[in-house]
Amino acid sequence: MKADLGITLNEGRYLKLIYRKRREESTIVGTTAIAECFGIKPATVTEMLQKLSKKGLLKYKRYRQTELTEKGIIEAKKLLRRHRLLEILFVKFLNYNSQNACDEANELDHHVSDELINAICQVYEHPERCPCDNPIFRNEECCGI
Description:
Elements: H1 9-24, H2 31-38, H3 42-54, E1 58-59, E2 67-68, H4 70-92, H5 98-108, H6 114-123, H7 140-143
């Protein structure tokens, strides 16, 4: 069963980046910073931020920092949970190094089902941190919380 998050792969990448920068690194997230991270033009970032804002995933005002809405935070956490549990699988089962695991997880996190992610989580006894030492968000269906 394929994952259905209701957001595109590219939108998901923006949500993950904004969440990480703002919530985990406590840095300001603006158009220029996002453009530098992705190696693209600020105008391209502006278009995506406007699109995400229309979907209710973030608050965007031109020339201001970008902030995720509650809906955006929920979607970012879903993707980051998938990403980080895939990293666990790649490092522990396939003996990938952390960076390669992260790169691979980045390509796959949007495409895997909740069932697969929950199975990985259960096999590894509901880990709390990924190989990069970032938190793995809990899931009620998986952990019974």
